[in-house]
Amino acid sequence: MPKVVLSVNTSWNVVNFRSGLIKALRSRGYEVSVVAPKDDHSAKVTDLGCRYIAIEMDNAGMSPFRDLHLAWSYWRIIRQERPNVFIGFTIKPNIFGSVSAYLNGVPVINNISGLGTAFVRGGFLRKLVQSMYRCALYRSKWVFFQNDDDRVLFVDEGIVREEQTLLLPGSGVNLDHFSPAVDETPRLNGVVFILVARLLWDKGVGEFVEAARLVREKMPTARFQLLGFLDVENRTAVPRNRIEQWVDEGLVEFLGSTDDVRPFLQAADCVVLPSYREGTPRSLLEGGAMAKPLIATNVPGCKEVVDHAENGFLCRPRDAEDLASKMVEFAAMDYPSRISMGQKSRRKIETQFSETIVIEKYLSAIQQIIKAADS
Question: Lowest CB count within 10 Å: 21, 50, 210, 218, which one?
Fold first, then answer.
């Protein structure tokens, strides 16, 4: 039985974003081992029919000693597992997991789901991360990207070779799990805008709140909701006291975090993501699959999901006034126009971003590697 080792920086990510791929691999006869740090979702990983292997990982830190220990841990695990293919997601599994796989003679598939804070902010950290990626991805069989801007950047910077690269439409959406409401009635108490994301400044949380302030001056009944993790291990995290301050001002409602975003998406009128840059954002894909209109920044990752004035609106990045104007434009639309916009979102997700498209591309890449090894 061929074996695949898959590694991500959190078990939460595995359960919420990679379960479809794992189930598809198992149904095709693959043995799957998942390497990820322990968290509240680790017990659920084995429910997917795979083996779970815990690994210590400092996701936010840059300690060379901890990273050397991480690389050694990967080397030992891969040495023991002897998989046919290693698949890495997120930065540290992509870097340290990949190098360890090469040293054990295991072919590698990487997934660049977004460029993260290092690329958005630039400076020394970006140069360091680029150098580490260049070293780690050089021998990869395939490197998947979620938008062409990221792919071209990596090729132009000499981080990967063009012939290594493939495009994916994000991590895909399960269209049965995320589906529109059977019957939806017009809201009577004001338009509801929701931002679903890790609560980072780079996700445009500040612009969302400032836009809320501007919109409420014209439309006092409009509501603005934040749904996502607080206190995450990221240098651009929005502090808890800032969220509490916005809530106390009556600008936003903080909904906390959840394993099931569907009820919250369903209860909103429009899904908003003013991010500075993305791979392909899950919140827009999931909101679109539930037939919700979308408002997002005109940046890589977001612009592929939103067709301006069709299934939503694109606004300028880091521009709260422009975001507010798009929110006002949406709120002024009549109910049938909003429903039509949401239906276009659903059709776009069905044709371009279905999970089945993503899974088939992974299976094809894995099969090519195994076939080449057997020949």
Answer: 218
